[in-house]
Each structure stands twice: as structure tokens, then as C-alpha cells.
Amino acid sequence: MRTRTREAAVAVSVSALALSLAACGSILGSDDDGKATEKKGDDVTVGLLLPEAETARYEKFDHPIIEKQVKKLTNDKGKVVYANAGEDAAKQSSQLDQMVADQVDVILVSAVDAKKIAPAVKKAKEADIPVIAYDRLAEGPVSGYVAFDNELVGQVQGQAILKALGSDRKNSKIVMINGSPTDPNAAVFKEGALSQLQNQVKIAKSYDTVGWKPKTAAAHMTDAITEIGKDNIAAVYSANDGMAGGAIKALKAAGLTDLPPVTGQDAELSAVQRVVTGEQYMTVYKPYPEEAVGAAQMAVRIAQGRMVEFDALAGDKSDNATTKNIPSLLVSVRPLTRDTIKSTVIQDGIYKTGEICTAEFKAACATVGLKG
User: Fold this and answer.
1) Model confidence over 152-194: pLDDT tens digits?
2) Does the CA dihedral 249-255-258-263 come out positive or negative?
3) Is residue 261 within 8 Å of residue 230, measured between CB atoms?
4) Contact yes or no for 115/122 (Cβ under 8 A)
5) Do 228 and 205 form a contact (C-beta atoms < 8 A)?
6) Is 35 a residue whose pLDDT tops 60?
7) Are strands 326-331 and 144-148 parallel, antiparallel or unpaired?
8) Rounded Cα gap, residues 372 and 357, in angstroms
9) Under 8 Å CB-to-CB from 64, ≥6 apart: which residues?
10) How far apart are CA 102 and CA 148, in angstroms?
11) CA 137 vs CA 13, 140, 148, 179, 255: distances in Å
12) Rounded Cα–Cα distance for residues 187 and 118 (Å)
């Protein structure tokens, strides 16, 4: 099921967001009676709930960037109250309930389980505290949604596999290692990938991976190798980099030295290094600063009641299982291959060349034109 509709196909950048805000100035939004409403000035408290710490991006990028941006938008008067659920849905619901009890002004939540968080979202709504779904589309009456264009993520991954296999691919056997069934994004990634792969290759095995765990992905890959045969796997669709690492370990453990193309997502440092060496064919680069900055801007503006500016940021619409036409900011993504490392993670300052090209990878870096 599609979880979103697009009003326009736009690639959002931080500069574009800034222009939108500048164009709006300090105009306030209006309530149903047409009266200007401004809940607060710069004294804003943003609750931030992230799902887990196993994926490197949350602590390295999302949390610190959102915190920094909230301070910038509020002249250092605003603050972020942060909690990480450690992949525990019940814990996250309790964390959200606590933020409601503490009367924060707005909550950004990246749900461990989109369905299980819905009652807590409803409580926040009843307490007049807006909840913005961040990176994962939570169920319940969310007031906004900020994420990458998740269908495009899957499409980019699927297109990469087709490119790697070339024109003679009709009978190629593909293994799909999809994300967690509790994460609504995983279904959209899969849908996007299948829109490219179906009728082009043969999906020999497909697995959903609870918790996005690399060890589980490795077990799935081992099972696929047993059933299909290690030499009969033409490519591996892995929904993210952590699972790609697990799949690659399983392939190598089976004795494969000439690995099939393996996809990924998130441009984690270890994955970028695997792309350099050729162990991983590609990953999807998601510009976390753009997503995090957009989330902070939406959170601060809705907390302040500046709805014209909020709506200017949220130019898309999304649907979850309970709420339609959720104002959404969907950020574009780019494929990262050996040819695009410089123009993605290095150009955007995500990693320095020296971080990628450590002693172990210097020779491989040289072959792709990277010098640490």
C-alpha cells in the first residue's frame, strides 16, 4: 500500500527551505476562526524520540543536527529533550507519554513500531501537543511528516541492480533482504525496488528482517545460499547497509570471492569503504542534514503557531493507516557508487577522504581516485 501522495516532484535542499521561510517572513498562521495564533516565541521545547542506536546515523547526524538547528531557529532559547528507545516499542511509547506529561511543545518521533506508537500519539493530540513523524511514518493523528522519498530509495536500489546485471538478465536470480515489518518505510522501499525488478529478473527468495539486524540478514543470506546455490545468485537487494554487511559476510563465509552486486542504504562509513573495495556495489546516500534541518524547522514553526511557514515547508502530502493528507516534507536521495563518492558524502562533508581511506583502504581508494 502506498503511504504517500506527491503534489510535486521536488528535490528539497536546505537552501530551498531557507528561501521558503524568508519568503514567508514572520507571518503567523490562522486558526479555524481566522485569528492569528502564536503559541510561543523562542522559548520552545522540542521532544525528540529516536528508535535505536545500532544504526550509526541517529547519534552521529540526526540528534546533534536537530539540536543545533533548534537552537539556531530560537536564538539559543529553545531546547531539545532527547530519548532513544533502543528498538523497544513499549519503551518508546512510555517516553512519548512522559514528554506529554512534561508538556513539551512539539514531539518529533521516529517510531520503533508505527502501529504501536499510535495510542501515545493520540494522547499527545488530546493534550494539544503536535507530533511530527520523523523518518518513519507513525500511525495516529500525526501533524506532520519529514522523511526521505522512500519509494525513490527502493527505485534507485532496483535500478542499480538492473544496471549491474546488464541487458541479459531475464533469468537472473535475485535475493531480497528487506527491512523490518514493523517499520512502514521498509514496505515502501520494497515497493519501490519491485517496481523496477518485477518482470525484469527472478525474485528467488525474499525475506523481511525483524529489527533490521545484520545477524538476521546474514542468516537469511545463508538460507538463500543453501536453497539457491552460491553460484546461482546474480544479485542481492539489501534494504540497508547494516544488512548488506551481514549478507556479504554470509556470501564470503560460503566461499564466494567474486561477490554478486549487493545494494544498501544510508551510506554508513563501513558501507562506503565496502563500495570502494567493490564488496558492496552501491548504497543510497540520504542527505541527513537536509532531513534533520527540515524536521527542526517544521517542529519549531508548528510549536510557535507559524502555520504559513510550516505549510511552506510541507509541500507534500502523505497518508498513514489512520490519517490522510498529512503535511509532509520529502527529501530526495542519490545513489552512491565508486564513481559518486566524491560528489556525495565527501562534497557534503559527511566524511572526509581520510576517514574513508584509512590504511586498510588506501590502495583501493587510489584505484577510484580518492587520496586520504
Assistant:
1) 999 999 999 999 999 989 899 999 999 999 888 899 999 999 9
2) negative
3) no
4) no
5) yes
6) no
7) parallel
8) 5
9) none
10) 30
11) 21, 10, 11, 14, 40
12) 18
Q: Model confidence over 120-155: pLDDT tens digits? A: 999 999 999 999 999 999 999 999 999 999 999 999
Contact 138, 146 (CB under 8 A): no
Helix ranges (DSSP H) in the chain? 14-24, 57, 63-73, 89-101, 118-126, 150-165, 184-197, 214-228, 241-253, 269-277, 288-303, 307-313, 353-356, 362-367
Q: Residue 29 pLDDT more than 70?
A: no
Gyration radius of the chain's alpha carbons: 21
Rounded CA-CA distance 53/257 in Å is: 32
The CA distances from residue 243 to 23, 219, 236, 274, in Å, are 43, 10, 11, 13
Strand partners, 84: 50
d(CA 329, CA 314) in angstroms, rounded, equals 5
d(CA 170, CA 192) in angstroms, rounded, equals 19
Neighbouring C-beta atoms of residue 126, cutoff 10 Å: 10
Residue with cell 508505527: 114
Here the cell at position 126 is 488530546
Burial class from Cβ neighbours inside 10 Å (0-12, 13-18, 19+) for residue 214 reads: buried
Angle at 58 between CA 277 and CA 132, to 5 degrees: 135
- With b for 16 or more beta-carbon neighbours within 10 A and e for fewer, the 58-85 pattern comes to beebbbebbbebbbebbeeebebebbbb
pLDDT digits (tens, 9 = 90+) for 309-358: 999 999 999 999 999 999 999 999 999 999 999 999 999 889 999 999 99
175, 358 Cβ separation under 8 angstroms:
no
Give the C-alpha separation, 105 to 127, whole Å. Answer: 10
End-to-end CA distance of the chain: 45
Residue carrying C-alpha cell 531475464: 170
| β-strands 4-5, 316-318 pairing | antiparallel
Are the beta carbons of 239 and 179 closer than 8 angstroms?
yes
Q: Quote the cell numbers at residue 72.
A: 539556531
